[in-house]
Amino acid sequence: MTTTLRSAPPARPEQEFQVTAPVALGDVAKPLPFIEKIFENAVVRRGLILIGLALIWEAYGRWLESPLTFPTFLDTMTALKDGIVSGVIPQRMAVTLQTLVIGYFLGLIIAALLTTVAVTSRIGTDLLSTFTAMFNPLPAIALLPLALLWFGLGRPSLIFVIVHSVLWAVALNMHAGFLSVSETQRMAGRTFGLKGLRFVLGILIPAAFPAILAGLKIGWAFAWRTLIAAELVFGVSSGQGGLGWYIFENRNTLDTAAVFAGLLSVMAVGLIVEAVIFRVIEARTVRRWGMQRG
Amino acid sequence: MSQTLAPSMQPLAGAQTASPLVSVEGVTLQYKTPDHLVTATYRVSFQIHQQERVVLLGPSGCGKSTILKAIAGFMPPVEGRITLKGSVIASPGPDRMMVFQEFDQLLPWKTVQANVAYPMLVNGVSKQEAADRAADALTKVNLAKFMDAYPHMLSGGMKQRVAIARAMAMKPDVLLMDEPYAALDALTRRKMQEELLQLWDDVGFTLVFVTHSIEEAIVVGSRVVVLSPHPGQVRAELNCDHLGFTERDTPEFGQLAKRISGMLFDDHAVAH
Fold it and tell me: What are the Cα distances from residue A175, in Å, to A129, A180, A201, A215, B199?
């Protein structure tokens, strides 16, 4: 019926071909030239950017000639070297990191307990959702006045705000991670005969690991920023200041180069943890397992 | 393949007199959705004997997967009972290993070898023995070369092979397969069916296989339980051990397929 409306395709003969090796192309996989290989390396590219920034900084600092407001790159490096050689910066860094580690792990433990309650009962889920909805938007630093009132001037107050900054982000991610574990994997685990804690350790935690790791990273970032800010606000306790206090102290003595050195140290720690420690954990876990793209 | 499948019926007839390995007796299964209590199967009964390849066949909504889950122990029957070697099935266990349709049934954080060895380690098999049995099972499914790969590096068919190896290595009383090849392309599926039958020839396990493909049911099964939908009830139990790949173009194969298809479409007419 429709033949009048449609033009039929032309009748064509069948054909068969011989497949030949693509000799003209040479090797199918060719190595890249040396220069191209170097620029494929992210570290090299980013290193070049850093060198460029340092040059601009130095040039601007020399042109400005105002070491009080904007020390040159070389002055800052000298201050940093002095700080490290004299042992002040490493000692301050140790104080800060110690406080951080205590607060971070305390926060993780509480988050793990809260998540366990949340996944095992409905009231627990409601509790966690309500708590996170209430406290997650509250900046940890806003609790500092209260913490000072409760725990006094010193490490306990700092730990309190760190726990607050870590807890909610991590608990939220852990919980979401557990909920997203596929039904098939749960059933597979149960056919193996896994139950209770062995099921959680053997199936749920590794299966939820991408989300848990994301929570750990967010928690770390919150904790680090909160801690430095808290140290800047009330700084020293019993003669034991951290990096934040180092920055504050040197600003008071108008040693701006040392302030810059302190800021660079804060950046360095943040960078090392985020770009090295977490990167390594990621590469060895979720990326190797194909649960996250590399 | 032909000599492995063609001599049929005789061993089965002998097995019928023995007591069944798995017995499904008047089983009604129900599950809850947010708005409804759905009856998946209604008073379903059938038996599975040692070394049989029982296929549960039916259209979607006939509760065939639900029955398999009940045999696995994930779902207690509302009515009736399911027994394994005479004792009632109460919970999932490694004596009834299951192969799922989904490719994510393998644990992505373990290598292929570790995936296969893991259920054995959980159940107290020694490390050495678990490693040996895993290597053996992977060799049987032609994946010995991929022992150290992670699941995400494998194709769908290879993942299903690993899942089968994992289940086989446990030496379960019965192997449960829930539409294991449904998500594969036609060529791979056919290859996997052949491999499964070859494996059955070599090892001689008891298999319960769920599918909605009539052809797959006849090829894979030695006995087909045809289920009607909404709620699932047993419509027929048919023998097809004598029909395999080589018989696919025979009139007998065609007739059986037609007969089953007639049953399924009849039931559709009744249900709607």
Answer: 10, 9, 15, 10, 42
Helix axes A209-234 and A243-252, enclosed angle (nearest 10): 30
Domain ranges of chain A: 33-65, 74-284
B95 close contact with A: CB closer than 8 A: no
Task: Give the nearest chain A residue to B118 (CA atoms).
Answer: A192
pLDDT by residue (tens digit) across A164-187? 989 998 998 988 898 888 888 999
Q: Is the pLDDT of residue A81 over 50?
A: yes
Contact A193 B119 (CB under 8 A): yes
Q: Where are the domains of chain B?
A: 1-20+49-96+173-265, 103-171
Greatest pairwise CA separation for chain A in angstroms: 98
User: Whose CA is closest to B196, among B142, B127, B141, B268?
Assistant: B141
CATH T-level fold of A74-284? MetI-like fold (1.10.3720)
Note which residues in 148-177 of chain B have CB less than 8 A from chain A: 150-153
**B1 burial level (CB within 10 Å; 0-12, 13-18, 19+):** middle
CATH number of B1-20+49-96+173-265: 3.40.50.300
Q: What angle do CA A55, A59, A64 make, to 5 degrees?
A: 150
Q: What is the ipTM of this complex?
A: 0.80
Cα angle for residues A58, A63, A65 (degrees, 5° grid): 95
Residue A180, Cβ density class (10 Å: 0-12 exposed, 13-18 middle, ≥19 buried) = exposed
- Tally of CA atoms within 13 A in the half-sphere of A148 that contains its CB: 12
Show residues of chain B in contact with A187, CB under 8 Å: 72, 74, 92, 98, 100
Cα maximum dimension of chain B: 57
Which of A44-53, A150-159, A190-199, B35-44 has maximum average pLDDT? A44-53
Cα separation of B24 and B40, whole Å?
15
Question: Please, are residues B164 and B196 in contact by the beta-carbon 8 Å criterion?
Answer: yes
